[in-house]
Amino acid sequence: MAAPDQTAELPTSDAGGTGSPAFAEPSIIDLVLCDHRNISTLFALFEVAAARKQEPHAGHVMQQHASALFQEIRLHSQAELDVLYPALEADAAGSTDNAVLALTCRDANQQVEADLLAVLASAGCALGGPAAASGAAGAGPGPDQLEAAVQRLQAHLSAHMVEEERMVLPRLAAALSPEDLIIMGKNFAAAKLAVSFLPEPSAAAGGVGSGKGVADKGRPVAAARTDTADASDQAMVE
After folding, report:
1. Residue-wise pLDDT tens digits, 23-53
2. What's the domain range around 170?
3. In which residue ranges is the amino acid composition biased (Low complexity) (predicted)?
4. Closest alpha carbon to 92 in 103, 107, 81
């Protein structure tokens, strides 16, 4: 598997100060696993709120948790498309299994994109602004619709995360050095900084994604970005 040959520049932190302990830099495996645990926690929080959806203000709390899920998942998924899967594809010439696995992961991410759009619509959001009111004047989609949309998202994404942890991450750990995994981790973090939160219009029209803004592999993510609608530059070169 080809090693990454560039490292994105990330903002530095002044936390700790002189004499603070030197912690090891996180690898891409550390960051992906951390994201997975955060996402699982957010799903659990949403479930707690949904169980109390008949109580006053519960619908608003569900919307807040759905919004947090949308942000966390979109950042994570786009960074994977930019950094994680290209690492598998770079080794496709030597491993048909890796090429198939990368394609499977990309397909799963497109399904997640469609599910995210459904969550947005069910939470009272839509491309271009608030969703049209349904039912009584000023009333948006109800908590039952939002709960169903989040459950569909959770079912697809949970299976995808298990596949990554069982198949993708072990292959990276076996193929790359600790130093290369840290470089990939920096590129993964940088890719998140370049993500657009505007969903793709093609997905809103009924598809699961056009590929643009999802897997545009033509440019390095470390480069300055002027078009925020294209949220998927390649963060790692072969």
Report:
1. 889 999 999 999 999 999 999 999 999 999 8
2. 28-128+141-194
3. 222-238
4. 103
